[in-house]
Amino acid sequence: MNTSSFIAVRYFRSKKKRNFITVLSIISMIGVAVGTMALVVVMSVFNGLEDLIRSLFASFDAEIKVEPALGKSFLTSEEWLKEIENLEGVAIVTEIIEDNALVEHNGNQLVATIKGVSPNFLDQGRFAKGYFWGDTTLGTPIRPGAILGRGVGFFLSVNLEEVNSYLKVYYPKAPRSAGSIDPSQLYNSAVLEPRAFFSIEQQFDDEYVIAPLSFVQDLLNYGEKRTAMEIKVKEGYSIEKVQERLKSHLGNDFLVKNADEQHAGLLRTVKLEKLFVFLTLTFILAIASFNIFFSLSMLAIEKKKDIAVLKAMGSPESLIKQIFLKQGALIALSGATIGLILGVLLVFAQEKFGLVGLGISSAVVDAYPVRIIWTDLVWISITVVGITLLASWRPAWLAAQVDTVKQL
C-alpha cells in the first residue's frame, strides 16, 4: 500500500468522535448506497418487462416471419413452399392470410383481424404463455372453427358452451364498374364456429380471430396468394443463421424478420425508457454525491495542519490530491458495494417471493418480473466511480493548495 492509500484508509477508518464531518461521510455513504440500489432494482425491472414482452409475443408470433417487401400479398406454389421447407434448419412453414373483416354474433358487430392459418399453426407451440381455454382445433372443412381473442369474444358476447353458436364474417368484394342494388352482392360472407379463447396481450386479445386457411382463402378470394409465412426453426439450429439462409434464398422481394424485429418499435421504446430512467437516477445520484463534496471539503479544512506537515516533509501536491480522491473513492465504493448487494438481494427476493405485485387480477404474471444483467451492474459501478471522482476533485485540489508556512 502506497502512502496516499495508507493515509486515505486511516482517515476513513479513524476512531475519532462523531463530529459533523463523520456524519456527512455516513450520509454520503448512505446516499450512494440508496442510489445504487435503486439503479439495480429499476434496471432489473425493465429487463424483466422486456423478457415478459418477448415471451408473450413469442406465444402468438413466429420465430421467423416472411412478408412481402412491397404490397400486401405474394403468390405461392407447392414447389416454392417445398423449397423453403427443405432449407436447413426449417422445421415448420405455416401459410398465413391476414386481413380485416366484419364479425357479427347475436347482433354485436366488430371489425377484427381475421388470420387464416394452415393446419400446422398450433404445432409451432402457440399460446404457451398467457391463457387458453376451449378446443385446440380449428374445426373441420364442413364446420370450420375459430379461436378468438378474449377481448373479441367479450365484445361479441360469445359463449363457448352455447349450442349452435356461430360467427358471421363479412368481407367486401373487389369493386366493379357496374353497381348492384342488392347489398349482398357487395360482400362475401361465411360462418365460423367459436371453439376457444386466448388471452396473451391486449393488442392481440382485442383484435384477432384465428380461422382455417381454406376458410379465409375462400372468403377473401385470395387463391394462391398469401400475406405472410411463419416459420419455426428446428431444435438445435440458430434462428439468426436460418434467418440469413431465408434472406439469401428469397432475395430482396421479401422481408425476413425474427421475433424482435416483428415488434422492433415496442422493444425500442422499452430500451429508451430504461435509458432515460437510468439517466434520471444517475442525475439524482449526482445530486446525492454533493455530500461527498462537502464532507471532503470539511475534512480538508480540518486536516490543514496534517497537510502542511506532509508538504513540509517534501510531499508533492499530487500526493495530497491522491489522498482526498481516494478518501472519496472509499466512501463511494463502500456505499456502492452496500447498494449493489442490497439491490441484488432485493431483486432475488422479488423473483422468488413476488414481493411487489402488479395489482392486476387478470395479468399473466402476478408480480413485477425482474432479471439482473451483469453488464448493468458494471455500468452502474462505472457511473458511481465517475460521479465520485468529479465530486472529489475540487476538495482534493483545495487541500493541495494549503499554505505550509501559515499552518505551521
From TrEMBL:
| Annotated membrane topology | Multi-pass membrane protein
Q: Where is the ABC3 transporter permease C-terminal domain?
A: 280-400
Pfam families linked to this entry: FtsX, MacB_PCD
One GO BP: lipoprotein localization to outer membrane
Keywords, ordered alphabetically:
Cell membrane, Lipoprotein, Membrane, Transmembrane, Transmembrane helix
Q: What is its main location?
A: membrane
Keyword Chloroplast attributed: no
**Record domain MacB-like periplasmic core: where:** 25-247
The membrane spanning regions, by residue number, are 20-46, 275-301, 328-348, 368-391
This protein's GO cellular component annotations are:
plasma membrane protein complex
**InterPro entries per record:** ABC3_permease_C, Lipoprotein-release_system, MacB_PCD
Protein location: Cell membrane
Please state which protein family the record places this protein in: Belongs to the ABC-4 integral membrane protein family. LolC/E subfamily.
User: What is the protein name stated in its UniProt record?
Assistant: Lipoprotein-releasing system permease protein
User: Which species is listed as the source?
Assistant: Algoriphagus boseongensis
Taxonomic path: Bacteria, Pseudomonadati, Bacteroidota, Cytophagia, Cytophagales
